[in-house]
Design goal:
4-stranded mixed beta sheet, DNA_brk_join_enz, about 50% helix, hpI Integrase, Chain A, DNA binding, about 260 residues, 2 domains, Integrase, two-stranded antiparallel ribbon, alpha+beta, Integrase_catalytic, Integrase-like_cat_sf
Length: about 260
């Protein structure tokens, strides 16, 4: 039973309670089969009464007190500059989007400079035998969203657009779609040995959610901005919410990272 419990709690901590429940059901069925055929005396998984709640960090790696220091790590890194991670981290601190969503943004359909909006409409995935492609939908219907980020985020996009030779907002070094897995690897390499070792792109989503929460936005407004599916079933199924992020833009504009401000 200790081994089964350890496996299930690991699944819970890494993938959430839903995945842990599915894993538990599968393990229960496997062990039940073992009992029927005499390989096990009893089913150890059935003895696990509760998996409890997912462990939470005592404090987030990125928060209003540490955000500037985290961004400084990238602004001061030659590797981050070479791998084009500096703008990406700055933008992530204002958008809080998923990595695959960010890399799927293109200049023609995703960015509207006149309206000051970003349209998240897909995610980058790798297809066996094909390579990297933009999947024409995000993780959930709620992820298909048009947001109005703070002006300093749009300024970064404008600067990049002025010198871009690629159709993608954050392309690879040769102008093609960028691999999310490789990008995460480069981020890990930049922060290795710093106070932010272990930084994951999802940490920016938590940071943005915290800023918006502190600013008094509702759970629905935060979910709309980040593309979260669940706040209430009815709202999750309402797929056309128009442009979101008006109040989010105001809240995040007041949290302009010092690093971004300094670089202009």
């Amino acid at each position: 039973m200790p081994i089964a419990n350890r496996v299930l709690t690991t699944v819970r901590d890494k993938n959430g309670s839903g995945a842990a429940k599915q894993a538990r059901a599968v393990l229960t069925a496997i062990c039940a089969l073992g009992v029927r055929h005499g390989a096990l005396d009893d089913n150890p998984v059935r003895e696990i009464e509760s998996l409890g709640k997912k462990r939470r960090r005592s404090s987030r790696l990125i928060n209003p007190k540490t955000v500037n220091a985290a961004l400084d790590v990238f602004h001061q890194s030659e590797d981050a500059a070479r791998w084009d991670l500096v703008d990406m981290q700055d933008v992530s601190s204002g958008l809080g989007s998923r990595m695959g969503e960010l890399l799927a943004l293109d200049w023609e359909t995703s960015v509207d400079f006149d309206k000051g909006t970003i349209w998240f409409h897909g995610t980058v995935i790798r297809v066996t035998g094909v390579g990297l492609v933009v999947q024409d939908h995000t993780k959930s219907p709620a992820g298909m969203r048009r947001v109005r980020p703070p002006g300093w985020v749009m300024d970064i996009f404008k600067r990049r657009h002025a010198v871009s030779t690629s159709p993608w907002c954050f392309p690879s070094t040769v102008g093609t779609l960028r691999d999310p897995d490789n990008t995460r690897k480069y981020i890990r390499l930049v922060v290795k040995g710093t106070a932010f070792e272990g930084l994951h792109p999802h940490d920016w989503r938590h940071y943005v959610a915290g800023v918006l929460d502190d600013a008094g936005l509702t759970a629905r407004q935060i979910a709309d901005y980040l593309g979260h599916e669940r706040v209430s079933t009815t709202q999750d199924e309402y797929m056309e919410r128009g442009v979101v992020g008006e109040q989010a833009s105001i809240a995040l504009a007041s949290r302009l990272p010092a690093t971004v401000q300094r670089d202009g």
